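subagent[fold] <- orchestrator: predict structure for attached chain, return tokens only, no commentary.
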Amino acid sequence: MKKLLTHSLSDNRIAVLGSLCIFLSAIEYLFPKPLPFMRLGLANLPLLLALEILDVPSFFILVALKVVGQAMVNGSLASYVFIFSLCGSTASAVIMLLFYKTLKDRITFVGISVAGSLASNIVQILLSIVFIFGEASWKILPAFLFVGILSGFFMGLFAQYFSQKSIWWQSFSGKTGIDKNNSLSILENEDSLDFKDAEKGSAKRVDYIGRIISPQLRFLIAIIIIPAFLYIKVPLAKAFVILIFFIITYLSGRKIRFLSYFILVLFVTVFNLFVPAGKVLLSIYSFRITSGALESGVIKGMTLVGLMLISFFSVAKDLRLPGRFGRLLSKTFLYLEKLFEYKGKLNPGNPVGSLDFMLVKVFSEDVAVFGNYSDKEKKFNLSPKLSSMFYFVAISITVWGIFFFQELFDFIS
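subagent[fold] -> orchestrator:
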């Protein structure tokens, strides 16, 4: 019984921290980025704090929840973004854990955060060399590392201050008991935390695909069609498949940002031009635009857009996975729903105080500390209805059919 209670306590702690990771990631997404690769790293705050209270296996489960949860919320679970995030977060977690265990008494959250940020950025640069920009990635390495050091430094400072001042964290980590009234002492004015929800009054998009196909079956469709899509190399064929993805994404209730996709393709194409290949199409001083580099860049850019669209239509927030991880993910999203209910309490002018106040409000003792908040968990279900199977087969056959037609045409020619 004691072992079961301890296990439940650990799961609740992991789920609460996981929901905070995803929540902060969603908040960060709202900030404008002067550079595509610039990130504040807000989602790393719970990871830094978790070093104090979680054992090694639980810490890496939290990392997995962070990566998968973020991908499910922003629709990148089936895209290249997920691979980059998974590898970067894992590298960062390993380095942070190593620094914390070996230099615990001689290093602060600042040093741990900077080390983790650099590890993540280096891994992602290596991945971009292999999968996206090629050798041109070395050109953005200095800027990328500088951003990593800067964001890691400020995130470390924030984590250090939050861990010392947060009433909620003192209770959650077991250092003190929780007192909701004391949390107000770090706020100059509680009323200043109230402001209009930015999303209030916005039209809610209808997920027509979700009415027909279960989240699990949608995810299975993505797994099946991604290999075929990756190997479609003819630009027109790729464009036709992406057009289908655009339609399905729109029917999934997702907002389509055409300008963002265009900029992404342009960005990837330009970087690929730095590695010339094939016939020279245009020369600008010593810079040559070659046919091979141009086609490769366009194809890579279109592939990235296609993978993002696949994720958008195939990944829903209520996707449930089997096993302990699936249950933890369900619990994480239940906590996340509570956090989003209070997101209007965040005040950029007082980030530590307002975040602490919100966490105290959301996670009272019976929830955040050893609570049971998982009654609403959903079971893993593929719901093999006739209508679902029709769309499942139609989408799969279309993408794989275009791939086989391409291979047949290449074989004949």
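orchestrator: received. Logging for downstream: Confidence is low (pLDDT under 50) at residues 1-7, 178-202, 365-383. The first helix runs from residue 2 to 29.
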